[in-house]
Fold this protein.
Amino acid sequence: VQLQESGGGLVQPGESLRLSCAAASGFSFSNYDMNWIRLAPGKGFEWVSSIDSGAKVTRYADFVQGRFIISRDNAKGTLSLQMDSLKSDDTAMYYCVGGGVAYWGQGTQVTAPH
């Protein structure tokens, strides 16, 4: 497994979670732009956020702008997603994805029920 997510869970709407993704040793984490992509029940995959390899440029989908913050630590080989003011619509499996869409983690489930 090249990428491993953690940090998902069951929260109430309005609460926060912090997702993490750890790269395996030998994976050239610092060379890749990284993304968070989610898959919600009854929906297709949705791109959530991205960060460039140098952690200088971040981008967000409109539906998380102002609520989520992506970050990375290349020295540690980790990617994070701080998720605040969670909504029921944020319920999904969240995947850490790198190398375009070449490398995927196994996902971590976030649930914020109505």
